[in-house]
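Sat 14:20. Reprocessing the chain from the morning session after the first attempt stalled halfway. Input below, unchanged.
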Amino acid sequence: MIFQKLIIEWLSKVRIKKHSVQVEGFNKIKNIVIIINLDEKKTCDLEALIHSFEVLGKNVECIGVTLIGKYFVKKGMKIVRNTDFSFFGKPKTAWIQQFFNMKSDYALLIDRSSNYLINHVAIHCKANCYIGYKSVPENKLLTLQLTALLEKEDEVFLRYIKLIES
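Finished this time. Tokens:
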């Protein structure tokens, strides 16, 4: 698992350097992927965030990522584990490969740890905008970094994301 992590981290750095896409304004986008770290304590109301985007006419897909393996599955959430990938980070399951072949407009990372597996999944979203928490060390994948709050984070995410214009 340690070697897999190192290889995936290196591959992500290479892909991040190649990533330079023009960011589309919020009004023009259709598809949002939310990738959440299931191993962290949650302060973001995920259901409220998804509902807020859907009310605004956005298609939302939610992917939960866990390294520990113990998690509480929310309805409609797909789960990704490190065992779902080969040693070199290639997906072992058909739905992950299908997900990697899709294009998302925005990828929202609900993760304070810059988790290597979350970054690996996110970079394959082929999003034109990556939004997540400001972290130390800085996550180079993120286009927009937000400071984590202790409550109502779903409202903060939505407020700032709606401000993005092309």
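The chain has a mean pLDDT of 82.
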